[in-house]
Amino acid sequence: MTFKGAPLESKNQAWETPPELIKWIENKFDVKFTLDAAGSLKNKKARFVITKDMNALEHDWMTGHGDGTDHVWLNPPFGHGGKLQRQFIEKAVSETAIGNCASVYALIPARTDTKLFHDLVLTHASAVFFLKGRVKFGYDGDYNTCAPFPSMLVVFESRSRKPLESLLRKCFTLTIPSEARQFS
């Protein structure tokens, strides 16, 4: 039996989010990311970054102010069969729940058939935005590689939400800038 769909993980865990997409998200949602929870010194998307060597799963996601006002960018690694991605999303849920940050904006594959989506995203996210087209991720500054899967932007917020909020008020579609996407 062979697998013919989009891969569930990438050997390269250093894919970069297009800078145009970050700027567009910050403008669209009127946020300024103060922390990149899964970046590198070379491609960080905020003033502060937690690198792979620092291990974001073992650190608080705040910049030192401790006032819960940080907005966190998260493009988690997709390796180890999705295990790392799940751990990062669990951490995002935890960090917003305890008030270490005001929000986490996570860019992840739009896999609505997974336990991750049903157990964590639908139950804890403030909003889910399905992106039109495929994100052009970068590697070493080259942003010509289109993701082999659709993506979604998931927003987790520290403010309390009404339980059982209508799914129709939680899921949306976003048309991201043409420089940062490609239609399949």
Reported for the largest beta sheet, the result is: 7 strands, mixed
Quote the CATH topology.
Rossmann fold
Supply the helix-strand structural class.
Answer: alpha/beta
Strand order of the largest sheet: 2-1-3-4-8-5-9
Number of strands: 10
Flag low-confidence runs.
Answer: 1-10
Q: What is the domain total for the residues?
A: 1
Compute the number of helices: 3
Could you characterize the architecture of this molecule?
- The chain is of the alpha/beta class and 184 residues long.
- It has one domain (19-182): Rossmann fold (3-Layer(aba) Sandwich).
- The protein contains three helices and ten strands; from the N terminus they run αβββαβαββββββ.
- The protein has helices spanning 19-29, 83-97, 115-124; strands at 35-36, 48-49, 71-74, 103-109, 127-132, 134-139, 142-146, 151-157, 171-175, 181-182.
- The strands form two sheets. It has a seven-stranded mixed sheet. The protein has a three-stranded antiparallel sheet with strand order 7-6-10, with no helix packed on it.
- β6 and β7 (142-146) form a beta hairpin.
- The radius of gyration is 15 Å and the shape is globular.
- The two termini are 26 Å apart.
